[in-house]
């Protein structure tokens, strides 16, 4: 998983000058922060990693439909209690979660690698506005630019996703039926009410 991998940073000028090599390095599983005026402007991820997180978000939405909100709890015991239905989030907590932008789920927007070199500053402005941008190189989707804010949000989800994987549910590949079956099987006990928020 590239979000947990080694994160490197390069300045915008260096990225522009070596765009093909940079995208190739990212495609080999090395995420990269693009710096602009000394501030993170975007994070470049392998395209299939961005797609994986898009599928994870859909898995989380399926959990939400079952009244399970793993993002609102921390720690193994609390996640298990949330899946069992023992911890119920407050309406305010759900509202805050619903209002949180999920840039990774936006429509597919692409840019050719040659155009990226010419319009990098403009493309970084688009990414800063919350639009993920997929780079096309040699006729294939190679990498995706996301905002640093979205990168941090996805990294914060990492532990919840890892908990489900350890419990036997891969949120990136499970469909709604598999997620519902997992929750049903995991619950299998008495529910008590508590509040999270």
Kindly describe this structure:
Helix content is 50%, strand content 18%. The chain is α/β, with parallel strands linked by helices and 197 residues long. It has one domain. Strands 1-2-3-7-6-5 form a six-stranded mixed beta sheet. The chain has a two-stranded parallel sheet with strand order 4-8.
Instruction: List the domain count as a whole number.
Output: 1
Q: Report the β-strand fraction as a percent range.
A: 15-25%
Kindly report the average pLDDT value. 91
Low-confidence stretches: 190-196
Radius of gyration: 19 Å
Order of helices and strands: EHHEEHHEHEHHEEHHE
Distance linking N and C termini: 29 Å
Would you report the number of β strands?
Answer: 8
What's the main sheet like? Answer: 6 strands, mixed
Strand numbers in spatial order across the main sheet: 1-2-3-7-6-5
Counted by DSSP, the helix tally is 9
Helix content: 40-55%
Pairing-aware structural class of the strands and helices?
A: alpha/beta
Shape: elongated
């Amino acid at each position: 998983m590239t979000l947990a991998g080694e994160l490197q940073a390069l300045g915008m000028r260096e990225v522009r000058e070596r765009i093909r090599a940079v995208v190739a390095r990212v495609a080999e599983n090395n995420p990269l922060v693009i710096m602009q005026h000394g501030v993170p402007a975007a994070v470049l991820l392998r395209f299939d990693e961005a797609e994986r997180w898009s599928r994870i978000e859909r898995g989380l939405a399926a959990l939400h439909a079952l009244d399970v909100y793993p993002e609102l709890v921390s720690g193994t015991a609390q996640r298990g209690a949330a899946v069992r239905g023992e911890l119920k989030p407050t309406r305010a907590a759900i509202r805050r979660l619903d209002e949180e932008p999920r840039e990774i789920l936006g429509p597919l927007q692409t840019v050719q690698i040659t155009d990226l070199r010419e319009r990098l500053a403009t493309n970084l402005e688009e990414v800063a506005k919350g639009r993920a941008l997929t780079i096309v190189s040699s006729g294939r989707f190679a990498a995706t630019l996301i905002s640093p804010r979205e990168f941090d949000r996805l990294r914060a989800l990492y532990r919840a996703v890892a908990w489900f994987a350890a419990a036997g549910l891969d949120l990136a590949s499970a469909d709604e039926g598999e997620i519902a079956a997992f929750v049903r099987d995991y619950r299998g006990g008495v529910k008590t009410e508590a509040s999270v928020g």
